[in-house]
Design brief:
Elements: H1 3-28, E1 37-38, H2 43-59, H3 77-80, H4 87-93, H5 98-124, H6 129-140, H7 143-152, H8 155-162, H9 164-177, H10 181-191, H11 195-211, H12 213-218, H13 220-235, H14 238-248, H15 254-259, H16 285-295, H17 308-323, H18 347-364, H19 372-400, E2 403-404, H20 413-419, H21 421-426, E3 452-453, E4 459-463, E5 468-475, E6 480-486, E7 489-494, E8 496-498, E9 504-509, E10 518-523, H22 527-556
Helix pairs in contact: 1-5, 1-6, 2-4, 2-20, 4-5, 5-6, 5-8, 5-9, 6-18, 6-19, 7-19, 9-10, 9-13, 10-11, 10-13, 13-22, 14-22, 16-18, 16-19, 17-18
Length: 557
């Protein structure tokens, strides 16, 4: 075959992949085609994140705290959650309405999930198109993951799911070839989208590597690759993790109690409804995973081929993670298990593992030769019918809940904030027991004269009017400093604290300062935050250099 013919074949395969994944994503996107968005538990929260980041893009800054949110008091989401992938809908928001930006981003997430699973199964199941289609269908239409995105707006978990198939293939590449960069990049992506799922997926990788400990003792390249993958996956998100840990372990925020106590676990899955193909409630097993994901992975038990043993290990991991969502799983006795909050999020990893194993088993299971095609077509048809029925049921469900229809003005902040009062009122990323979410009558000395944040969104100021107590209307987070400026220079540095009555930034100024001075509050990242950023950048640059070098060596070999 000539090079031009090879290129033609490759282009045809890519076109087939893009068309199939785009159409599958469109099928899953059906509930959004009426131009609205379900008012789920996390939807307004992500509306606010998109709006805040979009405002920051207009100001050409990367925010440490959402200063425009929380009615001007500031909201500390970036200190606890990575914002990297949320800049994509924030960029869309610059050119379209908030609702349209959100809907477009959801479609891209579904498309990326499909592309990710298809590309991985294409490498593993080279000559079985039906199996590739089946794995991708099962993954994208995993009922819980799909319905949670549609009904609850769980963007972070859905973004994280994009990387699950890549982690699976990266893990195999590490064990088979010592190639570490696929695993490192995909795990880093999970960490920077949903840190909880990233940690859980890392645990899966560690357990499977322990299972293959003899391989590491025999092959130094594999051992070096595992070390590089671990360092990269932990180092690139270090800037986020160090910052979050500093804020979290200060004990000043409600989110600490949520993450560090297993008593806060909610909503584990029940066994009920196991045999219901179309049950009406969320907490049921088959409704959560779907017919194909629950049973088809078992075909890999008798599968043969290069990936057979590895596929069985991934299948086992998928089923264990599935069990991890049940009430019977002993999360309540595990310290710090509360970081899961909702154990159903494990479905996002479980779905990827089970879909991979299902496709491989479907392709390589040993059926009787004369019955093989009949069985394969029957199983594929049942899975497709099940997916369509599930989507039909969910379309009826989301059609009956409250929906966002009016976030189409150029000013999306006002309705988004209004819908997010519940989130702010809970104070998850606000000081504990001081839930400031409305200016109302919360006034303090000199507060009415504060000029607000400057154009760089890094500071706000008020005139000096004698000694005494001052309060800035910015919720307290580690990293704020207050200085008194006069004639362009700093003449006094105030000691700041969290005001116990309001949770705002309070400080004392002496009586003997010049009358025309100005008190300036500025966000200056802490030493730990700066250290984390340096670590992240250093690891990223070094890992990129080593990955390119290894790739060149592979091509040369």
């Amino acid at each position: 075959m000539s090079k031009s013919e090879e290129r033609t074949v490759i282009l045809k395969k890519k076109a087939e992949q893009i068309v199939f994944c785009s159409l599958l994503a469109l099928l899953a996107f059906i509930p959004f085609l009426n131009g609205t968005v379900s008012a789920g538990g996390d939807t307004a929260f992500y509306f606010n994140r998109i709006e805040a980041l979009s405002s920051s893009l207009r100001e050409h800054v990367i925010p440490s705290v959402y200063r425009t949110q929380n009615y001007g008091y500031g909201y500390g989401t970036p200190l606890f959650l990575p914002d990297l992938f949320m800049y994509i809908p924030a960029f869309f928001r610059l050119h379209m309405t908030l609702l349209s930006a959100y809907r477009l981003f959801v479609y891209l997430i579904l498309s990326a999930q499909a592309m990710s699973m298809y590309s991985v199964t294409e490498k593993v199941i080279k000559h079985d198109r039906t199996a590739r289609y089946l794995s991708t269908l099962l993954f994208v239409c995993c009922t819980y993951c799909w319905a949670s995105l549609m009904n609850n707006g769980t963007l972070a978990e859905s973004i994280s799911a994009i990387f699950v198939p890549q982690v699976i293939y990266g893990l195999y590449s590490l064990l088979a070839e010592g190639a570490w960069y696929r695993l490192a990049v995909s795990l880093s992506g999970m960490m920077l989208s949903d840190p909880v799922l990233g940690v859980m997926m890392s645990a899966v990788c560690v357990i499977i590597c322990i299972r293959h400990h003899a391989l590491f003792s025999r092959n130094r390249n594999t051992l070096k690759g595992a070390a590089m993958a671990a360092v990269t996956a932990a180092g690139i998100p270090a800037g986020y993790f160090i910052t979050a840990a500093e804020q979290l372990f200060s004990g000043d925020y409600y989110v600490r109690d949520l993450f560090l106590s297993s008593a806060n676990l909610t909503g584990q899955t029940e066994w009920a409804g196991l045999l219901d193909l179309i049950p009406s409630g969320y907490p049921h097993l088959l409704h959560s995973v779907g017919f194909g994901l629950l049973f088809l992975p078992l075909l890999s038990l008798k599968a043969r081929g290069k990936y057979a043993s590895f596929a069985r290990e991934i299948m086992l991991a998928g089923y264990i993670l599935l069990l991890g969502s049940f009430r019977l799983f002993p999360w309540m006795i595990i310290p710090f298990a509360g970081i899961l909050e909702y154990p159903q999020r494990l479905f996002y990893i479980s779905a990827g593992c089970l879909a991979f194993a299902a496709g491989y088993g479907f392709s390589h299971a040993s059926f009787r030769k004369k019955d093989r095609e009949y069985i394969r077509k029957s199983l594929a048809g049942i899975c497709l019918l099940s997916a369509v029925l599930m989507i039909s049921v969910q379309f009826n469900i989301v059609g009956s809940v409250s929906r966002y229809r009016d976030i189409n003005s150029t000013d999306g902040a006002s309705p988004a904030l209004r819908y997010n009062e519940k989130e702010l009122g809970r104070g998850r990323f606000l000081p504990k027991n001081n839930y400031v979410y409305s200016a109302g009558n919360r006034t303090a000395h000199h507060i009415s004269q504060i000029a607000g944040f400057t154009e760089d969104a890094e500071s706000c100021s008020c005139p000096y009017e004698g000694g005494g107590s001052y309060v800035f209307p910015v919720t307290w987070y580690k990293g704020y400093t207050v200085s008194v400026m006069h004639n362009g220079g700093e003449i006094y540095k105030a000691e700041t604290a969290a005001d116990t009555a309001s949770g705002l930034v309070s400080f004392e100024l002496p009586d003997d300062l010049p009358a025309d001075s100005t008190a300036v509050l500025a966000y200056r990242s802490t030493a730990l935050q700066r250290t984390g950023t340096v670590i992240s950048m250093t690891v990223f640059i070094l890992s990129a250099v080593f990955a390119v070098m290894q790739r060149l060596q592979e091509k040369k070999a």
